[in-house]
UniProtKB/TrEMBL annotation, chain A:
Signal peptide: none annotated. GO terms for cellular component: plasma membrane. It is found in: Cell inner membrane. InterPro entries: ABC_transp_permease (IPR001851), LivHM_N (IPR021807), LivM-like (IPR043428). Residues 10-108 form the High-affinity branched-chain amino acid transport system permease LivHM N-terminal domain. Coiled coil: none annotated. This is Branched-chain amino acid transport system permease protein. One of its GO terms (molecular function) is branched-chain amino acid transmembrane transporter activity.
Automatic annotation (TrEMBL), chain B:
InterPro entries: ABC_transp_permease, BCAA_transport_permease. It comes from Pseudomonas indica. The keyword Membrane applies. GO terms for biological process: D-alanine transmembrane transport; L-alanine transport; L-isoleucine import across plasma membrane. GO terms for molecular function: L-isoleucine transmembrane transporter activity; L-leucine transmembrane transporter activity; L-phenylalanine transmembrane transporter activity; L-valine transmembrane transporter activity. GO terms for cellular component: plasma membrane. Pfam families: BPD_transp_2. This is Amino acid/amide ABC transporter membrane protein 1, HAAT family.
Length: 424, 304
């Protein structure tokens, strides 16, 4: 922080070097497009990219030499860590937002079109997935790259349960959560004893195993063609125009006009209730001993173990709760789509959920809810950028890790007032 | 049975030697900064594209003879992929040296998504391919069938072992290799002794990328086709190889690669081709559970 003068020569040199590297990197891949055993040249694209890199690097270099940039650089090197502790009697000013959101959510379906309803349902499903993964990655610090496997277990649980056992939406909903938790336990128990990074790769492998089995076991799962999923029912009443087997459909029973959206409305209502429940449970869990243990274990495993925490059990509980949340989300996804096939459960889906957690802030609930909506609803609105969606997620993940590894919204927690008469 | 067994043994050895080459990238990076470089599979994928581009360019300039063609392709691919390795490290990992434990991992996943999508956008999503470069094969009659050893496979085996030998020489005998080993053993001590550890880490990424580039050229020669998604599966397999051999150990990576390649080829020859990826992943899970330090690795001791 000594030299305050801006060294333009250095910036120019940086820019030229970056441009040279960009030319080497982008030149062949972007400039020479393969077609068959031949190629077309597209050097204009390379020119644009290299120009952007040169100008960007020059501006960055200038900025980092300015006082403000130096301050930012300094902040990077001493990355602030941990949880932001608020004063004991702190009342959040955002408390009034929660009732408003609930009211909005209640009146929303009366005005929404079917398309909007489906988009919001998808958003809520990702909120559920994000909350589940947030417990595993954000709170417990276990990087799970095969989270989509538990999602698949929930979705296929409904499809297979209907086909082979005749189970419906309501009986599968708790069962799927249980099954996913059991799968999480089976996978987690041996794996969680190991070094953290291995967990990432094992879960990645597990996710792929599940997908490959679903894809290849034609006689049981229908392979790539997928399986159909029954519509949910309400107290045995179906939502179709006519009920099967001489039953009474929902709209006739209540004497209302038939509405083709009613299935989605129903899913929306149940999903919303489940999301609220999960939010509440998570809110309580972070304040319970087990939640504290998750976060402590994330910050320093060795210290925790020497304090007598059973790290396997603590991690396993996080892993199972996260998995069961994904199982729930899977059931909703399956009944929302009406059918399931393995292509919904690729690694990209895991990466998307991870992006939600990363963007929302590790461990922050509000952040995850917002991020889930932004990352699932935004692509629906920006269809023309669909090709660049994955690229954007990747850039987002790298930038977030460099800029704010703990997410946009910092986790904060109110402190405790020391009681009088007790030694501090 | 013998015919199939031998044929799959040959296939497995070629495949495994290439897995070994990619596994070197994982194992060296893990050894030096203790991080799984998820983007490494994508580096391999990029090198496959680069090799096809180099071949197309060289053929366009009228180069026909096989030795020149393959030499030019190798040189071009290894150099450019090395630059990729350096740039990836500089952008996605270097700023995170002192960050939280999960940050580099997540950044690596982001990088891998970026590379995949970048290639998909610039080269299109369809499968690409190269023509057969080396025709012909040796045939041995065994029992009532025969075993075929194509010249391509012979070339792959020779090239892969030459690459591994060159790397072993660099690591064991040169100044750069000594710096790498010192940094791997104790980064802080190495930097006290005047080694620019940041630069050594960059070199390690370049070496890993160069090895992946060699693998990319060889696999592309063998199979002829590839797409932007090719790095994912091969990346996990190579990682399995690195873990099998003991992560952090160079001979382990090569050994693990060959064992995995042979086991996988035998499995798909004897049991089922559809489930060969499931077999490899299950192997990974089992190794990690029962022998996480691998065949040649040392058990990790957590130091406070």
């Amino acid at each position: 922080m000594s030299s305050s003068a801006i060294d333009i020569k250095k910036s120019l040199l940086d820019a030229v070097l970056a441009g040279l590297l960009a030319l080497i990197v982008f030149g062949p891949i972007v400039g020479v497009v393969l077609s068959g055993y031949n190629f077309n040249l597209q050097f204009d694209r390379v020119g644009w990219l290299v120009g952007a890199v040169v100008i960007g690097r020059f501006c960055l270099s200038l900025f980092l030499q300015s006082p403000r940039g130096e301050r930012m650089l300094y902040r990077f090197e001493t990355a602030g860590s941990g949880v932001h502790v608020l004063p004991p009697d702190h009342k959040s000013r955002l408390l009034w937002i929660v009732p408003i959101l609930i009211v909005l959510a209640v009146i929303f379906p009366f005005f929404a079109s079917k398309y909007l309803l489906t988009v919001v349902i998808l958003g809520l499903i990702y909120v559920l997935l994000g909350l589940g993964l947030n417990i595993v990655v954000g709170l417990a610090g276990l990087l799970d790259l095969g989270f989509v496997a538990f999602y698949a277990i929930g979705a296929y649980g409904l499809a297979l349960g209907y086909q082979h056992l005749g189970l419906g939406f309501w009986s599968v909903l708790p069962l799927a959560a249980l099954m996913a938790a059991c799968a999480g336990m089976l996978l987690g128990f041996p794996v969680l004893r190991m070094h953290g990074d291995y967990l990432a790769i094992v879960t990645l492998g597990f996710g792929e195993i599940i997908r490959l089995v679903l894809n290849n076991w034609l006689s049981f799962t229908g392979g790539p063609n997928g399986m159909s999923v029954p519509s949910p029912t309400f107290l045995g009443l179906e939502f179709g125009r006519r009920a099967k087997d001489g039953g009474v459909p929902f709209h006739e029973f209540f004497g209302i006009a038939y509405n083709p959206n009613i299935k989605f409305l129903f899913i929306y209502v149940v999903l919303f209730l489940v999301v609220m429940l999960v939010l509440y449970i998570k809110h309580r869990l972070t304040r319970m001993p087990v939640g504290r243990a998750w976060e402590a274990l994330r910050e320093d495993e060795i210290a925790c173990r020497s304090m007598g925490l059973n790290h396997v059990l603590v991690k396993l509980s996080a892993f199972m709760i996260g998995a069961s949340t994904a199982g729930l989300a899977g059931v909703f996804f399956a009944s929302y789509q009406g059918f399931v096939n393995p292509s919904s459960f690729t690694f990209f889906e895991s990466a998307l959920i991870l992006a939600i957690v990363v963007l929302g802030g590790m461990g922050s609930t509000v952040g995850v809810v917002i991020a889930a909506f932004v990352l699932t609803v935004a692509p629906e609105l920006l269809r023309s950028f669909a090709d660049y969606r994955v690229l954007l997620f990747g850039v987002l993940m790298v930038l977030m890790m460099i800029w704010r590894p703990r997410g946009l919204i910092r986790i904060s927690r109110s402190g405790f007032t020391p009681r009088k008469g007790v030694a501090p | 049975m013998d015919g199939i067994f031998l044929q799959q043994l040959i296939n497995g050895l070629t495949l495994g030697s290439v897995y070994g080459l990619i596994a070197i990238g994982y194992t060296m990076v893990y050894g030096i900064i203790g991080m799984i470089n998820f983007a490494h599979g994508e580096v391999y994928m990029i090198s496959a594209y680069l090799s096809a581009i180099a071949l197309a360019l060289l053929a366009f300039f009228g180069l026909e003879s096989f030795p020149l063609l393959i030499l030019g392709t190798l040189l071009f691919t290894v150099c450019v992929t090395g630059v990729y390795g350096w740039v990836i490290e500089r952008i996605a990992y270097k700023p995170l040296r002192n960050s939280t434990r999960l940050a580099p991992l997540i950044s690596a996943i982001g990088m891998s998504l970026i590379l995949q999508n970048y290639v998909q956008i610039s080269q299109g999503a369809r499968q690409q391919g190269i023509p057969t470069l080396l025709d012909g094969s040796f045939r041995f009659a065994i029992g009532d069938g025969f075993v075929q050893l194509t010249y391509t496979k012979v070339f792959i085996l020779v090239a892969a072992f030459a690459g591994m030998a060159a790397l072993t020489y660099i690591i064991q005998r040169t100044r750069l290799g000594r710096m790498c080993r010192a940094t791997q053993q104790d980064r802080k001590m190495a930097s006290i002794l005047g080694i620019n550890t940041d630069r050594v880490i960059s070199y390690v990424f370049v070496i890993g990328a160069a090895m992946a580039a060699l693998a990319g050229v060889l696999i592309t020669m063998n199979y002829g086709t590839f797409d932007f998604y090719a790095g994912f599966i091969i990346g996990i397999k190579a990682f399995t190889a690195a873990v099998l051999g003991g992560i952090g150990s160079l001979p382990g990576a090569m050994l693990g690669g060959i064992i995995l390649g042979v086991a996988e080829a035998q499995f798909s020859g004897m049991v089922n081709t559809d489930y060969k990826d499931v077999f490899s992943f299950s192997l990974l899970v089992l190794i990690l559970i029962f022998r996480p330090q691998g065949l040649l690795g040392r058990p990790q001791v957590a130091k406070v």
